[in-house]
Amino acid sequence: MEDDGELDEGPPLAIEIPGASDPNRRPVDGGASVGVTVITGYLGAGKSTLVNHVLNSQHGKRIAVILNEFGEEIGVERAMINEGEGGDLVEEWVELANGCVCCTVKHSLVQALEQLVQRKERLDHILLETTGLANPAPLASVLWLDEQLESSVKLDSIVTVVDAKNLRLQLNERRDSSSFPEAFLQLAFADVVILNKVDLVTLEATGALEELEKEIHGINSIAEIIRTVRCQVDLSTILDRQAYDATRVAHLEALLQENQSLSGSELHDNGVRTLCICEPRKVDLNKVRSWLEEILWDKKYGMDIYRCKGVLSVSNSNMLHTLQAVKEIYDIVPARKWKDEENPMNKIVFIGHNLNEDVLIDSLRVCAEATS
């Protein structure tokens, strides 16, 4: 449950949708994919406050919000679930005053998403709120490359809400253990970190937020950190991020440039962290695929990779290829031609546990040796 500071907002005004199953309701525009933002974070961090902010804001967007079973703080979903014939769960979607639609689920979020897609209503975006103890990796993997869903929806980004006052305690809970609390995983998979309740930290110590942001970026340097009080955030900063769009090369290259100097030499523990490696020579694409599968699938070098982003310079090709991976699933896509003024280069950022920089560099180098 959210703490008391997160419960004093009134629920959004809700009205039932007349004829929710009416086949004449407007379909999804032009068959374009609808972006899905996964909202995760520890219990009490402020996820419900963020969802309330979306549901109450006059943003002019039609956003579907799928809430988890702990979402009763929102105040609209208990009336939306009832037993159907044979005891099957039936979801009632409720339309809010600002045009958003909302429901809660008692089963798989993906099943609820499929039901939403089947309704074929026009939507601008979809939010999925996970439980406070959820590891976002399985859901992200399914949404990113699921063939059944990809024509209608696409994973846009993972937004992790953290409690600025209590995050360090949550991270230190088992820092030296071989297993890590979900706080690490939720940060590791994040594209955006909402550092909430910053007002409670700035009152205590000067520079505390800067130190906390440094610690977050030590775990995941590719995530954007947004400071908030009561999750009051500009929605343009968390929606339509297109973090998994292989064609957003400029944004990906900017991330890689920022991370190019990041080295594990200054990190003395084997915790969850970010590393960036480079290889100037062209690589054999088949060898790279085998290399990734050994690392991601076989855990050949004892590393546990959570996220991976990069650009590749591939043999016998003038195309810049983008690389993304979420746990065991990866994708390599030719994005565009290398520009004349560019120096083709392989740059890959890894986020994970027990990362070994020397092993990653040496093993990637093997993929390029035959093309020297």
UniProtKB/TrEMBL annotation:
InterPro entries for the chain: CobW-likC_sf (IPR036627), CobW-like_C (IPR011629), CobW/HypB/UreG_nucleotide-bd (IPR003495), P-loop_NTPase (IPR027417), Zinc-reg_GTPase_activator (IPR051316)
Keywords: Chaperone, GTP-binding, Hydrolase, Nucleotide-binding, Zinc
Record carries keyword Oxidoreductase: no
Any GO MF annotation of the entry: hydrolase activity
CobW C-terminal domain ranges (all copies): 272-368
SUPFAM superfamilies in alphabetical order: Hypothetical protein YjiA, C-terminal domain, P-loop containing nucleoside triphosphate hydrolases
Top-rank lineage group of the source organism: Eukaryota
Catalytic activity: GTP + H2O = GDP + phosphate + H(+)
Region (Disordered): 1-29
PANTHER family membership: COBW-RELATED, ZINC-REGULATED GTPASE METALLOPROTEIN ACTIVATOR 1A-RELATED
Family: Belongs to the SIMIBI class G3E GTPase family. ZNG1 subfamily.
Protein known as: CobW C-terminal domain-containing protein
